What we know:
The protein is an alpha+beta fold and 303 residues long. The strands form two sheets. The chain has a five-stranded antiparallel beta sheet with strand order 2-1-8-7-6, sandwiched between helices. It has a three-stranded antiparallel beta sheet with strand order 3-5-4. The protein is built from 14 helices and eight strands. It has two domains: 5-64 and 203-222 and 230-298, Beta-lactamase, CATH 3.40.710; 69-201, Beta-lactamase (3-Layer(aba) Sandwich). The longest helix has 16 residues, at 135-150. A hairpin with a 3-residue loop joins strand 7 and strand 8. It starts with 9 loop residues before the first helix and ends in a 5-residue tail after the last helix. It has helices spanning 10-23, 34-37, 72-83, 85-88, 104-109, 120-129, 135-150, 158-167, 170-181, 188-199, 205-216, 223-236, 242-248, 285-298; strands spanning 45-50, 55-59, 65-66, 155-156, 201-203, 253-255, 260-265, 269-274. 49% of the residues lie in helices and 11% in strands.
Amino acid sequence: MLKTLETLTMTELATWVQQAKIQANQGLVANRIPKLAVVDPHCFAVHIFCKSGQAYSTGDTKCVFPLMSAIKPFSLLYLLEHLGLETVFQWVGVQPSDAPFNSLTQLVRDQGFPRNPMINSGAITLADKLPGKDPLCRTQNLCQWLNQLAGCNFKLDEAMLASVRSVNSQTNQAIAQYLALSGYIDDVKTAIDTYEQICCLSGTVEDLACLGKILFLREIILPQNRRCVNALMLTCGLYEASGKYSIRIGLPMKSGISGALLTIVPTLGAIATYSPALDSVGNSVAGLAFIEALSEALTLSLL
């Protein structure tokens, strides 16, 4: 019988999880944010949500973590649904980047135009465009929309936000200043504050998988917006490693430096993993190892 997401067994999942956890020893937790620097690098959780409603969950599933950059597809989606493609892509491009996700050099080379929404320059630009009277209102609007649409339970982690603010990222500040000089954002302080807050929306691996429903079920959002977000996740979602993993795995994916990783199997399901040990690019080592094993075993690749 042909194996599919719906016919997985817990034995198979357990095998792939154990193999992935061994790979986590090759990674390191993010150390640029104090609260992320002290998490257990050996944590691993996975939740799979299938089109049929079947779900699988195993590992440290009670762990609560911030989305960090895994929010980027959804701030993009929110603006696409409310403002449309033509408006949104006046502010940000769709080209992959071969530079790190927080590269100011890339932005300068592109004359201030953010290359895509999955890197910091693009995400900061879109944070500046979110509707709301102030950053907290913007964050709450986005969070409520996602929770209602996907049936998840994300909340702003105030302690994580304080930890992020304590770092006062000079790189992100410089990116925002350059975006303002180039005319792509209106207010540096508002853009940065909104960006930091939405990155600190936090939940469990099940919440993250529920978010994925938005991007694989046909009836929830406009088809052109779903295709657009999935395409950008495939080509840009893992930063400069996106090309490599589009070949090795061939599925839309988005990572965050918390260890979050969301994978979409279009029309079939969503797979969320949490494992905070990262590779040198900033992607979850064990998360990618797990998805690669699963994708290969079930022939999930779109390519």
